Amino acid sequence: MTVQIAQVAGVILAGGKSSRFGSNKALALHQGTALIEGITRRLAGLFPETLLITNTPEEYAFLGWAMATDQYHNCGPLAGIHAALRTVNQPRAFICGCDMPLLNPDLIRFLCQLPGDHEVVLPWLPEGPEPLYAVYSKTALPIIEEHLSKNKCKIGMVYEKLRIRKVTAEEILQILPDFTTFQNINHQHDLARLASMGP
To answer: β-strands 128-129, 33-34: how paired?
Structure first.
């Protein structure tokens, strides 16, 4: 049995408009099940608490997960992160997107268990930060709220004010052979490529 990661909630953001995909990508089928269903299965065993952030909860009732909605609308992922941190009971949350079917439990555990007084633990890939495969602390809430209340929705601006533990590409490659785990599904052809990779 998997030992759960203490004091961290597992959160999926499913608030995007999927405009590039053409339909709700979270519900797109991969290996016969909805993309988001595979992600919930990967997270469920890892965390003592799980949460789905969505503004259309009726679409995801079949998952049986606790759900919450954005308090700030049309503010993108930052509003979802805010809603997650406001809602969860744990002091920290691992937050990912609904379009990341290749989440890796070993890397998630590594990110969640890094020591230190960080407000964000953030994979920093060669092309930049990965905000939706990261661990956020409730202590980040006041700064996030301050930005959202002024309609400042860019995550990068918030990062400038938070204590961040950047997880380097080198650290990630000590755990995984490559960066495949960060692949997300933005277009129909991404889903086709995922299917061609097998289970």
So the answer is: unpaired
